[in-house]
Inverse folding.
């Protein structure tokens, strides 16, 4: 009888721990019920203008503050030279010095963070942004533009680089400056209309 009680207690403990683990790992998109009342920042880096257009479209639907991530160093105008430089920077872990800054990052609850997909990951400028600010406890929502590569490691790398923040796993990715599915995605994660801020 004692053996049966021990086994039952062990099974109950495993079920409770498993349930807690499932709840703890629930996607953040299920936790944005108060999205309309949150202070929102839409931060983005855009090389060709595609990510900027998506950021502006999100701003039109969500409200909040729009912020362009700018860095000190520039890229060659010729596309293949630019992509090679970007590849070297990513492989070397370069974090360019930012020339724009958010005056009071603490005021924001939710940060939409936009980046082009460069060589399968987020740009060095977006990595610098994540390194430069304390985003502890904030919800970060990724949006990615790409030239055919899709999401690849962009969301995963943003999650890895954003210390102590909650990165929504259900980010948005679109080809070039196309907005396909953007409105539906915003509604799905809790932004059904323009916020007041």
């Amino acid at each position: 009888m004692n053996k049966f009680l021990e086994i039952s207690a062990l099974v109950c403990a495993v079920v409770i721990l498993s349930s807690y683990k499932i709840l703890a790992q629930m996607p953040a998109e299920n936790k944005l019920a108060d999205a309309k009342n949150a202070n929102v920042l839409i931060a983005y880096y855009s090389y060709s203008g595609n990510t900027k257009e998506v950021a502006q479209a999100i701003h039109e639907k969500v409200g909040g503050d729009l912020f362009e991530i700018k860095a000190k160093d520039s890229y060659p105008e010729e596309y293949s030279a630019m992509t090679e430089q970007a590849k070297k920077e990513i492989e070397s872990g370069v974090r360019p010095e930012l020339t724009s800054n958010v005056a009071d990052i603490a005021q924001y609850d939710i940060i939409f963070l936009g980046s082009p997909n460069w060589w399968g990951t987020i740009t060095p400028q977006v990595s610098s942004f994540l390194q430069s600010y304390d985003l502890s406890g904030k919800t970060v929502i990724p949006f990615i533009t790409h030239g055919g590569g899709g999401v690849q490691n962009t969301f995963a790398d943003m999650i890895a680089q954003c210390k102590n923040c909650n990165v929504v796993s259900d980010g948005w990715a679109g080809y070039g400056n196309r907005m396909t599915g953007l409105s539906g995605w915003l509604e799905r994660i809790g932004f059904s209309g323009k916020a007041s801020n």
